[in-house]
Known about the structure:
Layout: H1 7-17, E1 21-22, H2 23-30, H3 38-49, E2 54-57, E3 63-66, H4 74-85
Antiparallel strand pairs: 1-3, 2-3
Amino acid sequence: MEKISTLKEQIIELLKIEDGLTDREITDRIKGRGEPQQSVNITCRNMESKGIIKRIRGQDGLIRNYLGDFKKGYFYACLILSSTTGNLKF
């Protein structure tokens, strides 16, 4: 019998493949196009509070979710760069 994964697990697996998705994009891929995104938003905010993902507002003004490898410092280098230049590019 196949294990049913939680929304959190589904989001993590999706971000491993497509890092930097918005809540809307995650919802469309997991739940279906046009479905309400509240549960994805709540789950992503919860994962951010636990340090599992980072949520960063991109140049397009949308909040994007990043799983990333934070131990390598890549993320923090980008954050420092964005704070000094005002430009965050991924």
